[in-house]
Amino acid sequence: MNGNQNIFDDPDFFEGYLDLRSGRNFNDLLEQPAILSLLPDITGKNVLDIGCGYGINCLQFAQKAEKVVGIDISRRMLNVAMKENSDHNISYLQLAMEDLDRLTGPFDLIFSSLAFHYALDFGKLIEDCARLLAPGGILLFSQEHPMTTAAMNTDHRYVKDENGNCFFKVADYQSEGERHVRWFVDDVIHQHRKISTIVSTLCHNGFVITDCVEPKPDRKAIKQLPALARDLIKPSFIIFRARKGDNHADNT
Fold first, then answer.
1. Which residue in 44, 68, 94, 117 has the fewest CB atoms around it within 10 Å?
2. For residues 66-85, b (16+ Cβ closer than 10 Å) or e, as one string?
């Protein structure tokens, strides 16, 4: 989450988020299976988790990795992480993604689950990731799909025609920038970027994109959470896996 917004330390937001994640949800049934299926072999490797939240992924990585560093801007999230998801090879740091220049690498994997759409300066974020990765290292991240973040007015985006067929209205896609939404509390800020901006930024920083996934729910997931059926119309998330080129210039 960007340094200007630490919404997870808002008590009302924090409680709402924990309540959401404690039950069946889009993250656990759709985003997490998709992103974890793209994990490289991290046995004996060094891993950085950006926007680690309360450390669920960090604890998973620690079972195989040599070292795991989890960063998050939210002190409340990190308190949960250190209490419930700690291990001898995990270090948790309160740090905004804008401040990655305070870290030293190299890491073999940089992982981020649903945090990059909060980054104010995406170019700097990807540049920092390239600096911190070892040659051949992997950047694996998910974010809200640009179709989801596009609209400046998020009301009534799902509509039905006279025959009851459901459609999703895409608006304001070409206008990049801040989007203010209500999510548990008012005025949560997301950053909308076009897919082309994401792809170009990765390429311009020496990354080779090896996978791009827009997760689609299966019947089993929809049965557990019927609201997931809307992701048969349009995706909620997009996931990129990219490899740092061996010849990428290191800025350190």
1. 44
2. ebbbbbbbbebbbebbeeeb
**Burial (0-12, 13-18, 19+ Cβ within 10 Å), 222:** middle
Question: What is this structure's pTM?
Answer: 0.89
Task: Provide the residue type at 12 as one letter.
Answer: D
Q: How far apart are CA 222 and CA 231, in angstroms?
A: 10
In one letter, which amino acid is 69? Answer: V
Contact 191, 178 (CB under 8 A): yes
Q: pLDDT, tens digit, for every residue of 210-233?
A: 999 999 999 999 999 999 999 999
Question: Strand, coil or helix: what is 244?
Answer: strand
Domain boundaries, the chain: 7-244
Q: Residue 33: which residues within 8 A CB-CB, separation 6 or more? A: 215
Cα 199 to Cα 211: distance, rounded to the nearest angstrom: 11
The dihedral of CA 212, 117, 242, 63: what is its sign?
Answer: negative
| DSSP secondary structure, 83-137, as one string | HHS--TTEEEEE--GGGGGG----EEEEEEES-GGG-S-HHHHHHHHHHHEEEEE
